[in-house]
Amino acid sequence: MLKDITIGKYVPARSPLHRLDPLVKIIFTAFYIAALFIINKPLPYAVFTAYTLIIMLISGIPVKMILKGARPMLWIFIFTAVFNVFMTTGETLWAFDIFSLSIKITREGVISGAVLTVRLFYLVIGTSLLTLTTSPLDLTDGIEKLLSPLQKIKVPSHEIAMMMTIAIRFIPTLSEETDKIMKAQTARGADFETGNIIRRAKAMLPLLVPLFISAFRRADDLAVAMESRCYSSGGKRTKMKECRFTSFDLRAVIIFAAATAALMTTQYML
Amino acid sequence: MIKTEKLCYSYEQDTPFERRALYDVDLEIRDGSITALIGHTGSGKSTLIQHFNGLLKPTSGKIIIDGDDITAPNADLKRIRRKVGLVFQYPEHQLFEETVYRDIAFGPKNMGLNKDEIDERVRKSAYLTGLDEKYLERSPFDLSGGQKRRAAIAGTLAMDPKVLILDEPTAGLDPKGGKDILSLIERLHTENKDMIIIFVSHSMEDVARIADRVVVMNEGRVETEGTTAQIFSNPNRLRGIGLDVPQVTLLADKLRSAGIGLPDDIYTVESAAREIAVRLGGDTHA
User: Fold this and answer.
1) Which has the closest alpha carbon to B91: A230, A187, A11?
2) Does A185 contact chain B (CB < 8 Å)?
3) Contact A108, A89 (CB under 8 A)
4) How far apart are CA B63 and CA B68, in angstroms?
5) Which of A191, B111, B229, B247 could form a disulfide with B265 if both were Cys (CB 3.0 to 4.6 A apart)?
6) Cβ of B110 and A206 within 8 Å?
């Protein structure tokens, strides 16, 4: 059950996207999302789609797998589209009555439904490309660097990154533990799959109590292990694998900046 | 009787992460036996036992328990799980109720028994596992390690299984706690002659002490199986796959090569002591 989640999963491969400095990648993703919400004309959308396709192709990850990451969002896409189509006022394309409710489908509704759905879809694709091509440790590294200027105003960027690293590190451990306890309780006749919502919620108790206890025990063990190795916050630490800004990253930044400029030209100049 | 036919299993089948865990496992485990399952880490022991109560479905092959094919698509898994009790590694980690009593009652309650039957089963399994009545109203989290484990085993026994499977029942306990669990298994065996007991162990001493049959697993296959004496009579084969024989068997081997005529089925300290005493006694009389 838990093994099927692909959001946030890292797929190791050798690709230009994997090689990119995580900090650069995070900033790219931010620009990608910003650009997605700025553009509102057909031509920029076409260019944006081309960019997305190119990034997907050079990511070294099977396109099917990237698209699979968007599948859990399917219902949200459908809701967004349906709500916009029916709820937007404007030039009527088609009107009909159901149960004395008059329903109008407008031109504006169809357009905004389509635009929002496409935006959401690209949003999911763009962010999942970030996590698919960046290992969790590199990602936290990037976030730490991103936040490090904030240290001047006493934002504990290192501690935030450490907390994220630990949280990410324990996801597989806890999902393994969940699987184990679930099996143990199933062996004692527990039923997690049938019944109404209240019954199912109650059935989760024999799973959640042991899971919480083990999570606290692990946290305790980890704290002791860290303290016994003299971990304290605020110390200057060096990294085993330092990410450096290379000429490769510089070239990527130039290409990305040029691409963004081209996109904005199609939005504002043409 | 438990029978497996050409049992195969792969984790995460049809994905790039597919790993084969079991290859063509053919086994027959008879009623009333205590079978030890040994093999190094990753040899497929835990995967195999999870098939016996339907927690895992084989990729191919069959498992037949008392004539019922539990791998059939219409198999009644709830009934199978009542019949086959599975005690996982570190079972104390699954305790969750407010009192020991209620935790042991979890299984019988899921079976839909009435209050009196549940009460009878809880008390009986607490007695069998050597848990004093006074612990029943305590929180399971206040017990010692060995007591917690016994409470967890009692939780499975309360379902009155015909087959009891224990995955490393003595792991992580102190020597006394470990001995208590082994005595508990022996007591269950004497009180219920038909019960099949299967246990996974890394301790050859434990295996020698209570098992009458041994199944040796290696890399997802059954390497060999037989009576405890047969298995321990071939130390080199066991060593070849990262296992060993009990230390006392090695001692008996050395004594034998030094010219002391000992029988070659010595694998518990008790039998060694008895045989050596006989030899010593014989000498003094001569």
Assistant:
1) A187
2) yes
3) yes
4) 8
5) B229
6) no
* pLDDT band of B4, cuts 50, 70, 90: very high
Tokens representing A76 are 């949200």
Q: What are phi and psi of B195, to 5 degrees?
A: -65, 135
N residues, chain A: 270
B91 touching A (Cβ < 8 Å): yes
Domain holding B265, by residue range, is 246-286
Least confident of A116-120, A213-217, B158-162, B274-278: B274-278
**Residue B190 shares a structural domain with residue B71:** yes
Residues 6+ apart with CB under 8 A from A213: B93, B141
Size of interface A-B (CB pairs under 8 A): 55
Beta-carbon separation of B111 and A189 below 8 A: yes
CB contact under 8 A, A188 and B110: yes
CB atoms A187 and B155 under 8 Å: no
Question: Considering all CA atoms of chain A, what is the largest pairwise distance in Å, rounded to the nearest integer?
Answer: 73
Q: Do residues B23 and B89 share a domain? A: yes
Q: Residue A126 has what DSSP assignment? A: H
**Nearest-angstrom CA–CA distance, A66 and A13:** 14
Per-residue pLDDT, averaged over A156-177, amounts to 84
Please judge whether A206 and B106 are an interchain contact, meaning their C-beta atoms are less than 8 angstroms apart: yes
Query: Hunting for tokens 């089963």 — which residue is that?
Result: B121
Task: State the first-to-last Cα distance of chain A, in angstroms, to the nearest integer.
Answer: 49
pLDDT digits (tens, 9 = 90+) for B94-104: 999 999 999 99
The number of distinct structural domains making up chain B is 2
Residues of A in Cβ contact (< 8 Å) with B81? 186-189
- pLDDT in the model for residue B284: 46
Chain segment B47-67, per-residue pLDDT in tens: 999 999 999 999 999 999 998
B82 vs chain A: nearest CA distance in angstroms? 7
**ipTM of the shown complex:** 0.85
Average pLDDT over residues B201-225: 93
Separation in Å, CA of B97 to nearest CA in chain A: 8
With residue A207 as reference, give the H or E element that holds it: helix A205-228
Task: Tell me if B274 is assigned to some domain.
Answer: yes
> H or E segment at B61?
strand B60-65
Residues B73 and B15 in one domain: yes
B57 touches A: beta carbon within 8 Å: no
Closest to B124 (Cα-Cα) out of B97, B154, B96, B144: B154
pLDDT score at B285: 46
Give the closest-approach CA distance of A94 to chain B in angstroms: 47
Q: Using the beta-carbon criterion (under 8 Å), do A188 and B95 form an inter-chain contact? A: no
| Torsional sign, CA A254, A259, A262, A263 | negative
- The reply to whether B170 and B68 lie within a common domain is yes
Nearest-neighbour CA in chain B from A264: distance (Å): 41
